[in-house]
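Whiteboard transcription, Tuesday session. T.W. wrote the structure tokens on the left side:
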């Protein structure tokens, strides 16, 4: 148990797919098992099952529940990614 309203894997994956299909960018969030801080994944739109590294302390967690940070891309502000 933690203080965040985190969801199990299948619900988070479903939510991510839904958000991505609507044009949102999703970042996985979890609570670091070592330092107890809230951590956010640097890679968008990816769900990791093989452990998540908290960059602040370097610890790899294997959470069972996850949160989601959802961001909307600004139209016309996208940079060319060639
Ligand atoms: Zn940590």
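and on the right, the sequence the group agreed on:
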């Amino acid at each position: 148990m933690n203080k965040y309203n985190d969801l199990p894997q299948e619900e988070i994956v479903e939510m991510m797919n839904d958000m991505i299909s609507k044009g949102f960018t999703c970042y996985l969030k979890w609570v670091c098992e070592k330092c107890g801080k809230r951590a956010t994944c640097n890679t968008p739109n990816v769900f990791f099952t093989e452990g998540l590294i908290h960059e602040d302390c370097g610890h790899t967690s294997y959470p069972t529940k996850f949160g989601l940070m959802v961001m909307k891309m600004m139209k016309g502000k996208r940079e060319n990614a060639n």
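Someone added at the bottom: The first helix runs from residue 9 to 21.
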